[in-house]
Amino acid sequence: MGAFVGKLKIAILGxxxxxxxxxxxxxxxxxxxDSQWTSQYAMPHQKVISGILVVAIGMEVTTTRILEDSxxxxxxxxxxxxxxxxxxxxxxxxxILPNGTLNLQxxxxxxxxxxxxxxxxxxxxxxxxxxxxxxxMAWATGPVWGYPGFWGPGPFWGPGPFYYNPYxxxxxxxxxxxxxxxxxxxxxxxxxxxWSAQATxxxxxxxxxxxxxxxxxxxVQNLIKNGFTVPFPNPLPAGQVAEVPHEPNGMPxxxxxxxxxxxxIRESTVQ
Length: 271
Description:
The longest helix is centred in the N-terminal third of the chain and has 27 residues, at 2-28. It is elongated, with a radius of gyration of 25 Å. The strands form three sheets. Strands 1-8-7-4-2-3 form a six-stranded mixed β-sheet, with helices on both faces. Strands 5-6 form a two-stranded antiparallel sheet. Strands 9-10 form a two-stranded antiparallel sheet. It is built from six helices and ten strands. Helices cover 31% and strands 27% of the residues. The protein is of the alpha+beta class.
């Protein structure tokens, strides 16, 4: 009987750990990818990301800088030279042309000048609200885990006030703010669209900086899953200096110092 009880306890503990892990993995990133597309015409060398210019569109100044820095952090941790667009923007910079289209030629010029192979453009879309109704839950009085003594005496597992008293969670209504966005990856050499994605982010679950860092992490991971290669698919430890390999296009080897994400976020909030 003792051996059976021990095995049962281990089985229940394992189930609880798996359940908590599943809940945590679902909550950790408030962004989900709704759809994505990869160009079938992209040549193998075009799917090698050796340097990238990150551009955020349609956001207020602070959010723009945090998001661009967040993506640069993710790429830097993978050995990719990266530059945020706000370093090159000014009050006279015309990112959106009068006809409403992206000034891609401007971005290509900046990328080529800094020896960057690609341009990532992230645009904020519309917002929507999602209402979730929870009917609540109630427990009747009485023991839950079986007869007294099975788990041992005490108020938690055995007989006692914890599982004998009635308990209820009242009904509730929760409103979530959902932010739509899109991301596009262009080749800096010819402006060809290589990859695009649509995403939805549940806001207000965490700070803006944390939400955007998780957003950037998810999109960079999906780029790699869709066949785009970077020097180091797995992030390097902060502070390590990495040598970016020589690329087929003849770009020189570039030393990249990995910057801790907290420093990137802190810098963007004070500028």
